Amino acid sequence: MADKSNDPVAMWQNMIGEMEKGFNSFANQTMSSPEFSKVMNQVGGVAAGAQKQLGELMEKYLVSMNLPSRAQMVGMAERLQSIEGQLNDIKAMLTQMSKASGVATAGPSTQMPPRTKRPPSAEGEQK
Amino acid sequence: MNAPTGLDFASISDRVQTEVQRAIQRSIKGVEYFSTSGPTLGSTPKDVLLSRGTLQLYHYRPLADEIYRVPILIVMATTNRGYILDMVPGQSFIEFLLKRGYDVYMMDWTAPKPEEKSLRMEDYVLDFIPDCVRKVQEDSGVEDVTIIGYCFGGVLSLLYGSIFHDGPMKNLICFTTPIDFSEMELFSNFSDRRYFDVDRLIDSTGNMPPELILQSFDMLRPASRAVGQIQLWENIWNDEFVKSYKMFDRWATDILPLAGEYFRTITKDLMWDNKLFNGTMTVGGRPAQLDKIKVPILHAVAEHDHIVPYDAAKHLIKKVGSTDKEEVMLKGGHVSLVAGPNAVRRLWPKLDSWLGGRSI
Predict the structure, then answer these.
(1) Residue B189 to residue A48, Cβ atoms within 8 A
(2) Is B64 in Cβ contact with A48 (below 8 Å)?
(3) A87 in a structural domain
(4) Can you give the pTM of this predicted structure?
(5) Has domain B46-358 been given CATH number 3.40.50.1820?
(6) Which among B195, B166, B172, B360 is positioned nearest to B271, based on CA atoms?
(7) What domain count does chain A have?
């Protein structure tokens, strides 16, 4: 096997690794300054404002194209969510009723293995 | 034969040959890389027990003939998808737990919808977690529950445990969980209250956009993504490397938005006022003090964690009121602590040996 100190591929990988560490460390030092935070947040604030305006413009455009508006889609999603919630409630109620009546259901919960497991050391063996 | 310079010409010749073969493979596999999708992630069989907007509660189907009495509820970090704990068979933490005889439930998150921007910390800590704990109790028929929280899921678990300290939580396990937010130096600087107007941001965007969260994660190690691309190109001949790269890259960029009000509280109470560390944190008017937690607790931290540095996590064990408590520092980073070959060898067996005796 080639000596790593003479292996050009290993040297290249090592160099990349060192460059990564050096750059990250330098960047971290720079980003720790309050000046960086100030500039970053000024730029970020402008971008967020622009994003909001763009969103509003898109909404108007969709309405003018006679496409469903975002608010309508959100409304439909809410209705679907509410239906899903009601289905879950009905499912939970049915499970409770079947448990109470002692009738076995087809769900996986009834096929659970016994909760009797002990840790290997307590059983005196290593599994 | 070694030359006087120490160069082994025979091995250099072999190496050149290998590199030429790899260069050819790179061209072939490079095309394949862009034309194929990655492996299917999060495929361990499960049932959805509860779905409430951004919250999903899964119950994984057992893989052992006999299971421990106490079920586990995993609370995933709200910025990330839960499939990091269920990558592919053989590299799935969930599968590992199931095979070792644990009954596993997970609180996973989907992107909060625009209308969920009003979700508050109270909704997560006083409603979502207690609701899921109740569902786990009903489904398993067992009163006790072990809670495992990853990263910010750990913070939510701590808040829950400190408020419901007389509740059904039997054991608590935290992975890389920050409590001293002043020690997360770069995040603190990014959110410096003098320059970061969180109210303006959330009032204009509703939810915290995932792009901004991803950017802030990337900025912690700005060169690493580019270096990752170089490493991918170098190793693209290696199918295992490419599979692993695709899995982790997909997960790392699959960031979730955060509900606006929830993010506002994180920024003001935790990042600015460091209330959890100072013992002044309240959720919905209820004090959340770590010394109220008395249950057995294990905190696993990573030696090279750049997201949650050790200084931000190290006080947790000192602050909780438990007598049965342990911190374990393992080699690896924020993600490799819980997933990948490093986790398979280190964290998972450690967790099993700690939790088995406390799950009966």
Answers:
(1) no
(2) no
(3) yes
(4) 0.81
(5) yes
(6) B195
(7) 1
How far, in Å, CA of B203 to CA of B62, rounded?
45
Out of A14-28, B61-75, B113-127, pick the least confident: A14-28
Say if A83 falls within a structural domain.
yes
Q: How many CB atoms lie within 10 A of CB A34?
A: 11
Residues whose CB is less than 8 angstroms from the CB of residue A42 and which lie 6 or more positions away in sequence, other chains included: B195
Number of Cβ within 10 Å of residue A83's Cβ equals 10
- Rounded Cα distance between A106 and A126, Å, is 35
In this prediction the ipTM stands at 0.76
A41 close to B (CB below 8 A): yes
Tens-digit pLDDT profile for residues B292-334: 999 999 999 999 998 999 999 999 999 999 999 999 999 989 9
At B130-175, the pLDDT tens digits run 999 999 999 999 999 999 999 999 999 999 999 999 999 999 999 9
Q: What is the pLDDT of residue B51?
A: 87
Domain membership flag for residue A86: yes
Domain span at A92:
67-97
B166 touches chain A (CB under 8 A): no
Q: Which residue among A34, A78, A117 sits closest to B115, beta carbon to beta carbon?
A: A78
Length of chain B measured in residues: 360
Q: What is the pLDDT of residues B16-69, one digit of tens each?
A: 778 777 777 777 776 666 666 677 888 899 998 998 889 999 999 999 999 999
Question: CB B189 to CB A42 under 8 A?
Answer: no
Convert B203-214 to b/e letters by CB count within 10 Å (16 or more is b): ebbbbbbbebbe
By Cβ distance, the residue of A24, A42, A113 closest to B221 is A24
